[in-house]
Amino acid sequence: MVERAAIEGRLMDGDARFALESRYGHFTAMQVRDRRVRGLGLHFERLDEASRELFGGGVDRSAVLASIRTVLGDDLRDASVRVYVFDADPPRVVASAAPPHEPLKGPLSVKSVVYQRYLPHIKQAAGFQQAHINRTARREGFDEALLTTEDGLISEGSITNLGGFAGGRLVWPDAPMLRGVTMRLLERMDVPQERRPLKVADLTGFDQVFLCNSWGVMPVGAVDGVPLPQDAGLVARLLGHYEGIAWDPLD
Prior knowledge:
Blueprint: E1 4-7, E2 10-11, H1 14-21, E3 25-33, E4 36-38, H2 40-55, H3 61-72, E5 79-86, E6 92-98, E7 108-114, H4 128-139, E8 144-148, E9 154-157, E10 161-166, E11 169-173, H5 181-186, E12 193-196, E13 208-213, E14 216-223, E15 226-227, H6 232-243, E16 247-249
Parallel strand pairs: 7-8, 7-14, 11-12
Antiparallel strand pairs: 1-2, 1-6, 3-4, 3-5, 4-16, 5-6, 8-9, 10-11, 10-13, 13-14, 14-15
């Protein structure tokens, strides 16, 4: 639940938050620890690219930082922060803060769902469909939903990216998707990598499958009730790379 929100350096009341979060726009999500963020430059890049595509102009980094700092105030050092850019003239930058979120405890169980997002490379505000898919999967006892095409081609999770190790390579789905900040940080890992078309049935042949988002990196133990191989060494290597990524200061 959102606890605070700020627009371009000014705190907002609850009614204003609701009105803005229902508008046309895009956002990025990050975990703040000790007022630091992993991949801050990638968050700026995401916001800037999406703003240029949707609104015809980039985003003001100083406005982004001002809203983050304001929403954290002097007391919050750890938080889940979202930065939205909403349609206006000029576009408005809004940051919200909620309690910090740790990775889900794995191995996770995921369910495949036939659904493809419009403009999947943009992290869209007011994502009713994905929220509904995620909530439905959780009610059915799964940790996350895996989005696929009609013929079973995997793109991404409802709020995550999927990757896996197979034959000594780190493999990502070759499909339209949002390349999350955590995914992009893992792409810097010193291991052979490739993108290729993946179907759900292919995952049983992987040495280790995982999900990642701003919460962290989470191993997957089963898909549609079918167990997947687990390799503790690969998970440790993956986590070692992720946890070794420097945190960027917000102040």
